[in-house]
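My current task is to audit a protein record that another person submitted. What it holds is a sequence and that sequence's fold in token form. Thanks in advance; the entry in question is below.
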Amino acid sequence: MRFFTSDTHFGHQNIIKYANRPFVDVPHMNEALVENWNATVGPEDEVFHLGDVALGPWVEWDSILTRLNGFKVLVVGNHDRIFKGMSSSQQERFYPLYAEWFDVVTDEVKNLLLKDGTKVNLSHFPYTGDSHDGDRYEEFRLPDEGKTLIHGHTHAEFDALGMDARVSRTAAGTLQIHVGQDAWLYRPVSEQEVINLIRENQ
């Protein structure tokens, strides 16, 4: 099976407050996210992680990321240390580290074929929308050419916004599906769940 997720933010103390996550501290959050991941994803499954994997001391990441089930593909986000907005020296330094845990995709994925035949784009960023006022990182976003986009970045919460946290549209009406952890009760999203949302919102 195939799954999608983003914005795990392992090791990130401030994300608990900023994203209103229901965890008492970083160890609690890390363990809950690992447990939810492995209860959802099997060893033979594929997971597209759409960026912002972990923050904090990178030496602590291995003990978390090596425990996650599945074959993992990373579409890089702005908080990842190999993001295109970082210096080339930093990207070169950290790329081998990320490559130990992920099949790394430094550019966005276009025209991914879902199992029902739907073609979608994948990016950390939505075409439009942000977790702050105004759309940041516009130079790194895909242009809206009408194709459904699966994305992360916004940290919209399911409990606060309901389905609106998972589905949005650009000004041109293009469908955007948010697969961030905060909108899916801190677990990866199955391909079938994504297909269902697309069908419901066509």
About this structure: The longest helix spans residues 26-40.
